[in-house]
Design brief:
This protein has 174 residues and is α/β, with parallel strands linked by helices. It is built from five helices and seven strands, in the order E-E-H-E-E-H-E-H-E-H-E-H.
Length: 174
């Protein structure tokens, strides 16, 4: 299967002048990844894509809104693809079959679920992670073999942790 660097597709544009290939050995968290796809280029998607790119990983970022790609860091060396990730043709252009990581980070739980299911079941991507705003939906995603990150749940847990730390500091000060 041709990689995006070898086969630029219509609508896909190189963000930087050079394409980083291979793995970044200094970053163990991304060590097993050569090619990743990030769907959604909002605050989260652009941050993840930038980190993957900085680690030397070939990244394709998909967003329906081409202006969203302005959020990518200036050092981003991957590809951008303006298109609807719900459409199979758009996902095929990203070379999902050849990637090890898909992150579905759009603003829509439904779109994230659909993209994640296609990546997992049709393209058999090793690691599929979906952002899920509704924490009640996380068990469904898990049953489908999709890992999730719920900013709603994580924020609630963080608020509780900060509150407990504040109470502990107050108790210790007495």
């Amino acid at each position: 299967v041709a990689r995006p660097a070898d086969r630029p597709a219509a609508g896909r544009h190189r963000a930087g002048e050079t394409m980083c290939r291979g793995r970044a050995t200094e970053n163990a968290s991304w060590a097993a990844i050569d090619h990743a796809v990030v769907v959604g280029c909002g605050r989260l998607g652009s941050l993840i894509a930038g980190r993957l790119s900085a680690a030397g990983i070939e990244v394709v970022v998909v967003d329906r809104d081409p202006s969203a790609f302005r959020r990518l860091p200036p050092t981003f060396s991957g590809f951008t693809l303006a298109g609807d990730a719900v459409e199979a043709a758009t996902l095929r252009e990203t070379d999902l079959a050849g990637c090890q990581l898909v992150v579905a980070a759009t603003e829509s739980d439904d779109v994230n679920l659909m993209v994640a299911q296609v990546a997992r079941r049709i393209f058999q991507v090793e690691t599929v992670i979906a952002r899920v705003y509704d924490p009640d939906r996380e068990p469904l995603y898990r049953r489908l073999g999709i890992d999730t990150v719920s900013p709603t749940r994580l924020t609630a847990e963080a608020v509780e942790a900060v509150h407990l730390a504040h109470q502990n500091r107050r108790r210790e000060a007495r």
